[in-house]
Amino acid sequence: MIRTPLAEGWTLSLLDGPAPEHVRTARVAATVPGSVHTDLLAAGLIDDPYLDDNEALLAWIGRCDWRYETGFEWAPRVSTGSTGSPHGAAELVLEGLDTVATVRLNGEVVAETRNMHRSYRVDVRGLLREGRNELQVDFASAIRAADAASLELGYRPHVNHHPYNALRKMACSFGWDWGIDTSTAGLWRPAALEEWSGARLAAVRPIATIDGEEGVVAVHVDVARTDGERLRVTAAIGEHAASVALGPDETAAVLEVRVPDVRRWWPRGYGEAALYDLDVRVAVDSDSPSARAAGPADRVTQRIGFRTIEFDTTPDAAGTPFTLVVNGEPVFVKGANWIPDDAFPHRVDRARYARRLDQAEFAGLNLIRVWGGGIYESADFYELCDERGILTWQDFLLACAAYAEEEPLRGEIEAEAREAVARLGRHPSLVVLNGNNENLWGHQEWNWKLRLDGATWGAGYYHELFPAIVAELAPHVGYTPGSPFTPSREPGVPFDTESHPNDPAHGSMHIWDLWNQKDHPHYRDVRPRFVAEFGWQAPPAWATLTRSVSDAPLTPESPGMLVHQKAMEGNVKLTDGLLPHLRLPNEMHDWHWAMQLNQANAITTAVEWFRSLAPHCMGSIVWQLNDCWPVTSWAAVDGDERAKPLLHALRAAHADRLVTVQPADPADPSAGLVVAVVNDTAEPWTGSLAIERLGFDGDLRAAESVVVSAAARSVATVAVPSAVAETTDAAGELLRAGLDGVRGLWFFAEYRDSALDAGRFSAELQQRAGGVALRVTAESLLRDVTLLVDKVDAAASVDRALVTLLPGESAVFEVTTDAAPTLEQLTAREVLRTANQLVAS
């Protein structure tokens, strides 16, 4: 095997479309992997599309046709037989074309493609010529292609200004309610020329299971071959191996390798994420007359893990659960949704994935859901999740739309699904393959039935095609037909196709009426079994915001701010969601802080409530972990990779041991309060729970002590005695419940109605290796102390946020920075923030 990367010497030029004059005649250096936008940006022909209103100014790019071309030298290689003889192969490998492409080699069309989510391997043996070879890839406008395809297939409902559901392209490339409309084009994954002879491992698909104490992997191998040699395929994990001979006409085999006393792969928080190296080789069989002394013709190494996956959907008295069970252990899912980490996903490398997953671990996440309007994520992403024990859930790429089930779309969807399942199925972290995002819900509730007028909408994919593909190619991975969905309650019936898919009593649900219509305390009105989406918006970090928006003055509704707010009536919803808790600030720094604080509080309210309901509720997946550009959104990490306060809120709410105060009955305020002691560890948690009512001045008003015991992976609930729960001064009192240093707080009044003063404190600064430490000591009650360090150093980060301090208590904030911030800088009002500042004038 000789692989020649085709990454050098590319140029980009316009073929047709409404480009400005300075672009029409330009021929610029191009990158592969890359995209038109990033190549034009690198050439200085456009401004950064992420800044100000450049999105609209650059909309012409998606309406143009483009050409990528390069040349490469080639000479026949006797060792591979690639001179045109039948004993050698030469293949053009295109790992990702975005999206409607015509590929020519030396003037001959070798491929015409219409799917960003597939790879292509083209036989070019007869087209290569000695010396220089010319490769061209022409991309037609995806906007025009989608418009044309929507007419050919017939209208299907969707949620965008482009019919993204008619074309197999990353849906959010056409914009979303958090995303920029780029309508990209380009070779977004690598290209190469591969030359080989004899045999090549065309596919290696391990299915790892457990039999007692043994790990068992069935290694499905497909071999491409150029001759009739007798071959031998070998699969090995350390000293444990299996091999099989392939006759001259055989191209497939299944090898079983058994590993005794196998170490299981566990998700983080439950055990070791044990991985094994699988080595698969194909070579001419030693019994063959022409066996050579050389090594294998081809070799593939993969890391695999052994675990079992089940979903407990056994009906109970409360409805139908949706509980993930790994290696026989029920797992409470603490998750976040994932979108492409850049609107130009070719820019996301392994190091960037690692930084994002560092933040996921910081936030206490054990699962990431790859949302269906993005991409089938890269090997880097999945390998890093495997290593860290982070569970993954991959949607099939159909989101918020009806999809035609006729050709040519059906064939493209089946082909991409088969490739994705075969590629990703080996990863032990992958526990869910999900048919779609919100399409079952949309068909049921969004008036699609009228608009479809009898047309197909995707049900055949979700209930027939996809489950069949998963059963064939990755039976060790769980499958769900959609998110949200209601599991079947009838034995032998795999999916419930009649009930409402977003019923909180059954299966998974998405909660969006809170952000869109209701205040966040109403999360407690819902008793879900599993929540796959819920979220609250806030602006990005200050440094991110001011880098991307240059409005003067900068206001919540200045022109650039509105460009970077994609949600329908997003600012109205931000305001409506804030006012029950805080007055609306008229100063921009205060507005920014208030919205970030409210986002963190909203999600804390939801996550702690869901966790208090376990095992009735067995998971929540917040929308969303990350952003793809600088924007006001639901993300915990903004488009410049900076953490919002929400990331710190998630860390606290996802702690393995949590004490949270909740209403005994949210529908009946007179029912009092309870303390939920949440123990997500493998050991019991027993001790004396102190429940105290305190004044804002720190004085003890009432107290009780209760012995509590929470078994491993369980919740213990204690009623708060009425003498403690009944406040005599709602505006000036709080409830504190603590066990072994873990505490939960409950305030009887909203911020705006409370007796908070402006916040008095002292502070001292110490130099530390890699940064500084700021110690803050409260002289009066300080709520939600947060250090917005990016306002002092855009590259700085801090280890904690949203810390509430009673008088006399201290907290140390560790700041990582290469700068030398002063005490005055770090304690400036715009940097050291508290909720007090938003209440007391």
From TrEMBL:
Residues 27-189 form the Beta-mannosidase-like galactose-binding domain. Its EC number is 3.2.1.25. GO terms for molecular function: beta-mannosidase activity. The keyword Hydrolase applies. Keywords: Glycosidase, Hydrolase. One of its GO terms (biological process) is carbohydrate metabolic process. Pfam families: Glyco_hydro_2_N2. It catalyses: Hydrolysis of terminal, non-reducing beta-D-mannose residues in beta-D-mannosides. It is an enzyme of class 3 (hydrolase). PANTHER family: BETA-MANNOSIDASE. This is beta-mannosidase.
